[in-house]
Design goal:
Helix content is 9%, strand content 39%. By secondary structure, it is mainly beta. Strands 11-12-13-14-15-16-17 form a seven-stranded antiparallel beta sheet, with no helix packed on it. It has a four-stranded antiparallel beta sheet with strand order 6-5-8-9, with no helix packed on it. The protein starts with a helix and ends in a 5-residue tail after the last strand.
């Protein structure tokens, strides 16, 4: 070993003698010749805190790697390989981009890959990880194998001469502008800033850190290293959560004859992209149930529909079960409750449907499929065969993938035997236990109302007594529908839409939050109004919750009203405060408002920090029937680096008549993005 070392050093000295005095890469921006590099190496002395034998070993190995590269000159260039891509994060609460120095082989973080990078390598030699990403050890562990050794010489030799003098910061409202390689340009992106190497903060023993506060918001950000002349590899694409400028809201029209109410569920998020369940009109009171998933996060293009059932009404729901999408659905008008699960994560192929509940003879407004304590579970309202058999039921599979189910569900509403008919229901997991909320008509007592009930165990094997959270006399000619159960940090909240047939202007969305997970006591209900200038009834109302990028729990309500043949949709967005409390009186407003026969797909605008999506109406107001509205949740989105970003996806139908006619012509998808803004 010692003999080989001596021979290599002799070779270095011979080459150095031919080249004259050593010239460092810092003094030669056009690059360094192999002779000059070896001369620098031969003339370097053992740094402080480095063992002499170790340093000689490192010098010998670097000489070998440089010589074997087979080049005569190491040209100065910005770092271009994946190992030099900075890790970029965006804090929506402070609008701050942050990243650490990254340039493969530049272990002393001075912007040049050269002989001097042997010093930190020698000082940390034989250190073993795992290393924190922001530590000097992680910088010096150039091959990322968790051990600082002679093997970390290779990144120095492979990147010798690379130069990094500044970082360029970019923002864009289109993901297509992002450069996938060092050779790609930045498209139509805007360069927001140039930070020099000296702008970084270099704490002892740490990776140098950089930050930039965004003043012009964009959907996407990245940074690129530069040597002052050209740019290198881009960082990861960081999601800004909400853009600036003018960006069209993505839309897509489904080419099929959709049944009335033919949006059975969704949009859902499946492998980061939206997916929907639609029923195509079969012409005999039922149709074909399809699963369709977008091929991108914005829903601008969609895969071919996958048929799940050729005899279905629009009673269905989708959830991710065991990593794959799964669907619960009803067969026809009076068939059994079924379950089917995809055989892959995107839903391109599906297994064989299994029967969940064969006793039901009809289904009411909706059902909910969830994974509860590791198994699929369904909450639903159904008719068990007669007026005194209407019931609110819960059933959980006997295995993790839903291959087998119990012989009968748990009936969670005990009054089903005295002519109580559930109209709308929702299932959730509140405080670790499954829970349901539902609206009902009580024939014998001539009352209608809203109830909440929660299981007493995590599986839903036993349930507490339902709690009445609202009721009214049946003679008032009002109906509760479109109910949503939401989780307010472990406390239930319930929203329901009251439609007043005699006085449509009084139609309203009510919201009520409980004081604890069990839902035995509740705060006063709050009315959420729609457009105050409208003279007609809201078409729809819904509430959901999600986390913004600042990690705050938000609640969003959406409503739609008509006035003078003008379609207006409005919503409110408010932070969730104390348990069960949402202050709707101070909520931020967002709108979407296509109008009249001439309205087209328009540009969107930012309203109170909410991305407004505008959707076209090709006919007049009465032609537009809104069937599915506000959905969303924490982490929903396209899987970018921001945590808890929210996207509110919407689906509309364009009809040739009123809501219950059978001549819906097409369906359209669009979305409203909720950026990570603090409200």
């Amino acid at each position: 070993m010692l003999r080989n070392l001596c021979l290599m050093l002799v070779a270095i000295m011979v080459l150095a003698g031919c080249g004259g005095p050593g010239i460092t890469s810092a003094e030669n921006p056009e690059g360094t010749t192999l002779t000059q590099a070896l001369n620098d190496l031969a003339n370097s002395t053992t740094p402080a805190n480095v063992d002499t034998d170790t340093y000689d070993l490192l010098k010998t190995e670097l000489a070998r790697v440089l010589s074997e590269r087979g080049v005569d000159r190491f040209v100065s260039a910005p770092p271009a390989t994946a190992a030099s891509a900075a890790v970029l994060t965006f804090d929506g609460g402070t609008s701050t981009l942050a990243w650490g120095f990254a340039s493969a082989g530049d272990y002393n973080q001075n912007g040049l890959v050269e002989v001097a990078d042997l010093t930190p390598l020698g000082q940390n030699f034989n250190e073993s990880g795992p290393f924190d990403y922001n530590s000097v050890e992680a910088v010096v562990d150039g091959n990322s194998d968790g051990l600082i050794s002679v093997n970390d010489i290779t990144p120095i030799g492979q990147n010798y001469g690379n130069s990094l003098s500044e970082y360029h910061v970019y923002g864009s409202d289109s993901q297509d502008d992002y450069p996938l390689s060092a050779a790609d340009d930045n498209g139509a992106a805007t360069q927001l800033a140039v930070l020099s190497l000296g702008d970084g903060t270099a704490a002892t023993g740490q990776r140098t850190q950089f930050s930039y506060t965004v003043t012009t918001p964009h959907y996407f950000y990245w940074v690129r290293p530069s040597d002052g002349d050209s740019e290198g590899i881009a960082s990861n694409l960081a999601d800004g959560g909400g853009g600036g400028g003018t960006v069209e809201a993505p839309t897509f029209t489904f080419d099929m004859e959709i049944m009335p109410g033919g949006f059975c569920g969704g949009p859902y998020i499946v492998e980061e992209n939206p997916a929907v369940l639609l029923v195509e009109d079969g012409g005999s009171g039922s149709g074909t149930l399809y699963y369709i998933r977008a091929t991108d996060y914005a829903g601008t293009a969609w895969s071919d529909p996958v048929e799940l059932s050729n005899d279905s009404m629009c009673y269905a729901d989708l959830a991710i079960i065991g990593g794959n999408p799964a669907v619960a659905y009803a067969v026809g008008w009076s068939g059994p409750l079924m379950f089917v699960r995809a055989t892959d994560a995107t839903g391109s192929s599906w297994g064989t449907p299994v029967t969940v509940d064969s006793a039901v003879t009809s289904h009411t407004n909706n059902m909910k499929l969830l994974e509860v304590d590791g198994r699929p579970a369904i909450g639903y309202a159904s008719d068990g065969g007669g007026q005194d058999e209407d019931r609110v039921a819960y059933i959980r599979a006997e295995d993790a993938l839903g291959a087998t189910w119990p012989a009968a569900p748990v009936i969670v509403e005990p009054d089903y035997a005295v002519n109580l008919q559930a109209r709308s229901c929702d299932l959730g997991v509140i405080g670790g236990n499954p829970a349901m909320a539902y609206t009902y008509d009580h024939y014998d007592a001539s009352t209608n109302g809203v109830r909440f009930v929660r299981a007493t165990d995590a599986q839903g094997g036993a349930w507490a007594t339902p709690v009445e959270i609202d009721s009214w006399d049946d003679s008032l000619n009002i109906m509760a529908r479109n109910l949503n159960l939401v989780d307010l940090d472990g406390v239930p909240g319930v929203a329901w839409f009251i439609e007043d047939f005699m006085a449509p202007e009084n139609s309203i969305v009510w919201f009520r939050g409980a004081t604890a997970a069990a839902g035995t006591a509740w705060h006063d209900k709050q009315g959420i109004s729609g457009n105050p200038e409208a003279t007609a009834a809201p078409l729809f109302g819904s509430v959901t919750t999600f986390e913004n990028t600042a990690g705050e729990l938000m609640a969003a309500a959406t409503l739609a009203r008509a006035a003078d043949a003008t379609y207006r949709g409005e919503g409110l967005l408010a932070p969730v405060g104390a348990a069960g409390v949402v202050d709707w009186s101070t909520a931020a407003l967002f709108q979407f408002s296509p109008t009249g026969a001439e309205a087209g797909h328009g540009a969107s605008a930012s309203v109170a920090g909410i991305k407004q999506a505008s959707c076209y109406n090709s006919m007049d107001f009465l032609s537009m029937m809104l069937f599915c509205c506000l959905f969303g949740g924490g982490g929903a989105g396209h899987g970018a680096s921001a945590v808890g970003e929210g996207y509110v996806y919407r689906i509309y139908s364009l009809s040739s008549g009123y809501q219950f006619e059978t001549s819906l012509t097409e369906a359209m998808f669009c979305y409203i993005e909720l950026p990570g803004t603090t409200f």
